Amino acid sequence: MSNEGEKPPLWAPWRMEYILGHKPGDARECIFCTYSTRGAKREDLVLVSQPHAYVCLNRYPFASAHLLVMPRRHTASLEDLGDEEYAALMALLRAAIAAVKRAVRPEGFNVGFNLGKVAGAGIAEHLHAHVVPRWAGDTNFMPVLADVRVMPEHLDATWAKLRPCFDDVPGEKAPAP
Length: 177
Fold this sequence. Notes:
It is a single chain. 28% of the residues lie in helices and 15% in strands. It has helices at 14-20, 31-38, 83-104, 142-146, 155-162, and strands spanning 46-49, 53-57, 67-71, 108-113, 129-134.
């Protein structure tokens, strides 16, 4: 029972996994490299894996259906990619946006790369693009007041909704639900 005037706690149980998880500079193996060697696995939230790039759900999303598109090769720089790798990454980025449009019908997107730690990259050592679908009214006061994001759907449900929308994208895929 709380005292009068006390506010109940807001729970964000996914945050502890992030707090204790891999951080830039850790000696642990790059999680994105681990995912790329395992192929398309639902437990890694990978939606499609191609020879030069792959797509997965962001385990710590800013919005539902927040995807990461990245090269399979470990590099931090766009300019380090060969022409074939760069073309494959950009083609898959375009295909991922189209798949998200089919799956969740967003009204807009934030799409981009955070290049380097000071630019906001959580895992700066492995290049990745963010695809963040947006809807009118999808932001609220929770991140400002409580450092909590309200996610309207669990990652497993989002993966199941998105996975069939990648059927027409070439590459290895985990079985659709």
